[in-house]
Amino acid sequence: MKMLDDINLFRFIVDSGSVLAASEKLNIPHKTLSRRIQILEDTINIRLFHRSPRKLILTEAGKKLYSTCSPLINKLTYHTEYIVNETKSSQGTLKICCPQILINFGFHQYLSKFLSLEPHINLLVEATTDADSVNTLEWDAVIMEGPLRSSSNIARKIGAFSYILVASPEYLQNKPPINTPLDLECHDLLKSKSFLNWDLSSKNQEQYKVKNEPRLLMSELTGVKSSCLDALGIALLPSWAVKLEVKNGHLEQILPHWCCDTKELFLIYGHREHQPQKLVQFIDFIKSCTLFST
Q1: Cα(first)–Cα(last) distance of the chain, in Å?
Q2: Which end of the chain, C or N, has fewer beta carbons within 10 A?
């Protein structure tokens, strides 16, 4: 790297016409520049200048080094400045990895909003059902459920949620009342293969395991939610996934003092220093995202 710096100084001296002129432009002492050129000549074992009291004259080897290296250094400088400017501006592509369940339950709508706010940023999003297989170093940012594996990356908590019991008002209208978890035995349950065990906990630390077989068993929670909205039974779903439906009355929360499997969500990214501006914008957006707020 030091030799590359010295070659760049050599190029600058040639462009300036003399060591003295280059010294004034670079604000580097004349003797320092002369010594650096001497070191370069000793390193490559080639004389670059014919030295005279009045001026420096390039040797044949010096002319070849200048004509060969000068365009390369200019190109290197251009691309370095381009990369620096791109990193400092809100543009380029961000690689994001997140759980498949987020995409299934509408997280893509928030990603669309981010893109509308940042027209010069592109997103490459991959959804995964196997968090353990995700190599966080391959992504600009990863959204992951806790608890987290040990990592040298930054992990920012972006939300916490529980799985809650919900049903449509139409289903509950002509069904027996539900006052305790035991009452669930008289109702139709809608389950997914990924979440078969309903181990409920109360705010008073009571435990209850729902044992009755489901009336409907599906491979994905999205289908369970749709069936729940169709008044087919009671479902256990992530609180953020039914937040809007509960708010607008399309679903009702059952046994609000009981829930299952409280989880935390984290946004994982590289070190705090030297972050690209596009990543800073995405982090700020996720922090303001209301999807996981309670």
Answers
A1: 53
A2: N
pLDDT tens for residues 20-41? 888 888 888 988 988 998 998 8
Residue 150's pLDDT band (boundaries 50, 70, 90)? low
**CATH T-level topology, domain 2-88:** Arc Repressor Mutant, subunit A (1.10.10)
pTM here is 0.65
Q: State which H helix or E strand residue 21 sits in.
A: helix 19-26
For residue 153, which of 287, 266, 271 has the smallest C-alpha distance? 271
Extents of the domains making up the chain: 2-88, 90-294
Bridge-based pairing state of the strands 92-99 and 141-145: parallel
**Residues sharing a CB contact under 8 Å with residue 21, sequence separation 6 or more, in sequence order:** none
**C-beta separation of 176 from 183 below 8 A:** yes
DSSP secondary structure letter of residue 183: G
Angle (nearest 5°) at CA 92 between 84 and 87: 20
155, 148 in Cβ contact below 8 A? yes
Query: In 59-172, where do the E strands start and end?
Result: 92-99, 121-128, 141-145, 154-167
Give the HSE-up count for residue 225: Cα atoms under 13 Å, Cβ half-sphere. 20
Angstrom distances, CA of residue 202 to CA of 110, 190, 209, 261, 264: 32, 21, 12, 11, 18
**Amino acid letter, residue 91:** Q
Q: Write the pLDDT tens digit of every residue in 177-199.
A: 999 999 999 999 999 987 888 99
Alpha-carbon distance of 35 to 37, in angstroms, equals 5
- Whose CA is closest to 94, among 292, 272, 277? 277
- Contact present, 210 and 255 (Cβ < 8 Å): no
